[in-house]
Amino acid sequence: FTRKMVQTGCPESSEDILVHRRLMGIELTEEDRNGLSCPYLFAVPCSPHLAAELAGERIEPAGIAAATDMLLECYDTVLLEGAGGLSVPLTLDYTFADYLQEYNYPVILVSSPRLGSINHTLNALEILACRHIRLAAVVYNLHGFTANLKKAEQAMIADSRQVIRHYLQKLAMDAEIIDLCSPPQITRECKAAVERMLLRLAAG
User: Fold this and answer.
1) What's the CATH number of domain 1-105, 3.40.50.300, 3.40.50.880, 3.40.395.10, 3.40.640.10?
2) What is the pTM of this model?
Protein backbone atom coordinates (compact mmCIF):
# COMPACT_ATOMS: atom_id res chain seq x y z
CA PHE A 1 0.00 0.00 0.00
CA THR A 2 1.20 3.55 -0.63
CA ARG A 3 0.54 6.79 1.13
CA LYS A 4 1.54 10.44 0.94
CA MET A 5 2.66 11.98 4.22
CA VAL A 6 1.69 15.50 3.24
CA GLN A 7 0.79 17.21 -0.03
CA THR A 8 0.54 20.87 -0.90
CA GLY A 9 -1.05 22.57 -3.88
CA CYS A 10 -4.07 20.25 -3.81
CA PRO A 11 -7.17 21.73 -2.19
CA GLU A 12 -9.47 18.70 -2.50
CA SER A 13 -7.57 15.47 -3.04
CA SER A 14 -4.01 14.21 -3.29
CA GLU A 15 -2.88 14.18 -6.90
CA ASP A 16 -0.03 11.82 -6.01
CA ILE A 17 -2.40 9.30 -4.44
CA LEU A 18 -4.47 9.38 -7.63
CA VAL A 19 -1.30 8.58 -9.60
CA HIS A 20 -0.40 5.78 -7.17
CA ARG A 21 -3.77 4.10 -7.62
CA ARG A 22 -3.68 4.49 -11.41
CA LEU A 23 -0.27 2.82 -11.52
CA MET A 24 -1.54 0.10 -9.20
CA GLY A 25 -4.55 -0.43 -11.44
CA ILE A 26 -7.10 0.06 -8.66
CA GLU A 27 -9.75 2.54 -7.62
CA LEU A 28 -9.36 4.85 -4.64
CA THR A 29 -9.52 2.86 -1.41
CA GLU A 30 -11.47 3.51 1.76
CA GLU A 31 -8.23 4.75 3.32
CA ASP A 32 -7.92 7.28 0.50
CA ARG A 33 -11.46 8.49 0.88
CA ASN A 34 -11.21 8.97 4.65
CA GLY A 35 -7.84 10.75 4.44
CA LEU A 36 -5.76 8.08 6.12
CA SER A 37 -3.44 7.72 3.13
CA CYS A 38 -2.76 11.47 3.04
CA PRO A 39 -3.59 13.06 6.40
CA TYR A 40 -2.28 16.53 5.55
CA LEU A 41 -3.57 18.18 2.39
CA PHE A 42 -3.10 21.90 1.77
CA ALA A 43 -4.25 24.17 -1.04
CA VAL A 44 -1.23 26.48 -1.31
CA PRO A 45 1.70 25.04 -3.35
CA CYS A 46 4.60 25.74 -0.99
CA SER A 47 6.69 24.08 1.71
CA PRO A 48 4.56 21.91 4.05
CA HIS A 49 5.32 23.98 7.15
CA LEU A 50 4.22 27.20 5.44
CA ALA A 51 1.19 25.62 3.77
CA ALA A 52 0.05 24.36 7.17
CA GLU A 53 0.60 27.77 8.76
CA LEU A 54 -1.41 29.50 6.03
CA ALA A 55 -4.23 27.01 6.62
CA GLY A 56 -4.15 27.63 10.35
CA GLU A 57 -2.88 24.13 11.09
CA ARG A 58 0.25 22.43 12.39
CA ILE A 59 1.66 19.18 11.07
CA GLU A 60 2.02 16.64 13.86
CA PRO A 61 4.62 13.96 13.07
CA ALA A 62 3.10 11.64 15.66
CA GLY A 63 -0.17 11.80 13.74
CA ILE A 64 1.55 10.73 10.53
CA ALA A 65 3.20 7.83 12.36
CA ALA A 66 -0.11 6.78 13.94
CA ALA A 67 -1.77 6.69 10.52
CA THR A 68 1.08 4.54 9.20
CA ASP A 69 0.67 2.11 12.10
CA MET A 70 -3.05 1.84 11.34
CA LEU A 71 -2.30 1.02 7.71
CA LEU A 72 0.27 -1.60 8.76
CA GLU A 73 -2.52 -3.42 10.58
CA CYS A 74 -4.16 -3.98 7.19
CA TYR A 75 -1.23 -4.16 4.76
CA ASP A 76 2.06 -6.06 4.85
CA THR A 77 4.04 -3.17 3.36
CA VAL A 78 3.35 0.56 3.43
CA LEU A 79 5.39 2.95 1.26
CA LEU A 80 5.46 6.57 2.44
CA GLU A 81 6.13 9.24 -0.15
CA GLY A 82 7.64 12.48 1.09
CA ALA A 83 7.29 15.93 -0.44
CA GLY A 84 10.30 17.64 -1.96
CA GLY A 85 13.26 16.04 -0.20
CA LEU A 86 14.88 15.14 3.10
CA SER A 87 15.50 18.73 4.20
CA VAL A 88 11.97 19.97 3.56
CA PRO A 89 10.49 21.24 6.86
CA LEU A 90 7.26 19.79 8.23
CA THR A 91 7.45 22.44 10.94
CA LEU A 92 9.99 25.22 11.40
CA ASP A 93 12.19 22.94 13.52
CA TYR A 94 11.37 19.49 12.09
CA THR A 95 12.24 18.13 8.64
CA PHE A 96 11.43 14.94 6.78
CA ALA A 97 14.88 13.68 7.77
CA ASP A 98 14.04 14.29 11.42
CA TYR A 99 10.88 12.24 10.95
CA LEU A 100 12.69 9.33 9.30
CA GLN A 101 15.33 9.34 12.01
CA GLU A 102 12.85 9.54 14.88
CA TYR A 103 10.69 6.68 13.61
CA ASN A 104 13.56 4.60 12.22
CA TYR A 105 12.11 4.21 8.73
CA PRO A 106 14.32 2.93 5.90
CA VAL A 107 14.52 5.06 2.77
CA ILE A 108 14.08 4.32 -0.92
CA LEU A 109 15.80 7.23 -2.63
CA VAL A 110 14.67 8.16 -6.14
CA SER A 111 17.25 9.59 -8.54
CA SER A 112 17.58 10.02 -12.29
CA PRO A 113 20.13 10.95 -14.96
CA ARG A 114 18.54 14.36 -15.47
CA LEU A 115 20.50 17.56 -15.02
CA GLY A 116 20.78 18.50 -11.34
CA SER A 117 20.00 15.04 -10.02
CA ILE A 118 23.57 14.21 -9.00
CA ASN A 119 23.67 17.16 -6.60
CA HIS A 120 20.32 16.28 -5.00
CA THR A 121 21.20 12.59 -4.78
CA LEU A 122 24.64 13.04 -3.22
CA ASN A 123 23.29 15.60 -0.74
CA ALA A 124 20.59 13.13 0.26
CA LEU A 125 23.13 10.32 0.67
CA GLU A 126 25.27 12.53 2.91
CA ILE A 127 22.27 13.37 5.10
CA LEU A 128 21.25 9.73 5.42
CA ALA A 129 24.79 8.63 6.24
CA CYS A 130 25.37 11.37 8.82
CA ARG A 131 22.07 10.60 10.55
CA HIS A 132 22.51 6.81 10.33
CA ILE A 133 19.21 6.45 8.47
CA ARG A 134 19.06 3.16 6.63
CA LEU A 135 19.03 3.32 2.83
CA ALA A 136 17.10 0.40 1.35
CA ALA A 137 17.73 1.19 -2.32
CA VAL A 138 18.30 3.89 -4.89
CA VAL A 139 15.66 3.80 -7.63
CA TYR A 140 17.23 5.13 -10.82
CA ASN A 141 14.26 6.56 -12.67
CA LEU A 142 14.66 6.19 -16.43
CA HIS A 143 11.06 7.09 -17.25
CA GLY A 144 10.95 9.13 -20.44
CA PHE A 145 14.30 7.87 -21.73
CA THR A 146 13.64 5.92 -24.92
CA ALA A 147 15.68 3.16 -26.50
CA ASN A 148 16.94 5.51 -29.24
CA LEU A 149 19.20 7.70 -27.14
CA LYS A 150 21.91 10.00 -28.36
CA LYS A 151 25.48 9.15 -27.39
CA ALA A 152 25.61 12.06 -24.91
CA GLU A 153 22.40 10.87 -23.24
CA GLN A 154 23.76 7.34 -22.95
CA ALA A 155 26.91 8.75 -21.38
CA MET A 156 24.91 10.78 -18.84
CA ILE A 157 22.86 7.75 -17.81
CA ALA A 158 25.93 5.57 -17.35
CA ASP A 159 28.00 8.26 -15.61
CA SER A 160 25.31 9.34 -13.14
CA ARG A 161 24.71 5.71 -12.18
CA GLN A 162 28.45 5.21 -11.68
CA VAL A 163 28.77 8.36 -9.55
CA ILE A 164 25.92 7.20 -7.30
CA ARG A 165 27.45 3.73 -7.00
CA HIS A 166 30.83 5.29 -6.11
CA TYR A 167 29.34 7.37 -3.30
CA LEU A 168 27.34 4.44 -1.97
CA GLN A 169 30.64 2.59 -1.60
CA LYS A 170 32.42 5.66 -0.23
CA LEU A 171 29.75 6.12 2.45
CA ALA A 172 29.62 2.37 3.17
CA MET A 173 25.92 2.21 2.31
CA ASP A 174 24.76 -1.30 1.42
CA ALA A 175 22.01 -0.43 -1.05
CA GLU A 176 21.25 -1.63 -4.54
CA ILE A 177 20.63 0.70 -7.51
CA ILE A 178 17.41 -0.34 -9.22
CA ASP A 179 16.90 0.83 -12.80
CA LEU A 180 13.24 1.75 -13.32
CA CYS A 181 12.01 2.13 -16.90
CA SER A 182 8.58 3.24 -18.10
CA PRO A 183 5.80 0.89 -16.83
CA PRO A 184 5.39 -1.11 -20.08
CA GLN A 185 9.14 -1.73 -20.14
CA ILE A 186 9.71 -2.75 -16.53
CA THR A 187 12.20 -5.55 -16.76
CA ARG A 188 12.44 -8.88 -15.03
CA GLU A 189 15.70 -7.65 -13.46
CA CYS A 190 13.91 -4.62 -11.99
CA LYS A 191 11.17 -6.77 -10.47
CA ALA A 192 13.76 -9.17 -9.04
CA ALA A 193 15.72 -6.25 -7.51
CA VAL A 194 12.55 -4.91 -5.86
CA GLU A 195 11.83 -8.36 -4.44
CA ARG A 196 15.37 -8.56 -3.03
CA MET A 197 14.96 -5.14 -1.44
CA LEU A 198 11.66 -6.12 0.19
CA LEU A 199 13.21 -9.32 1.52
CA ARG A 200 16.10 -7.35 3.06
CA LEU A 201 13.65 -4.92 4.66
CA ALA A 202 11.56 -7.77 6.04
CA ALA A 203 14.69 -9.36 7.50
CA GLY A 204 15.55 -6.09 9.25
Assistant:
1) 3.40.50.300
2) 0.88
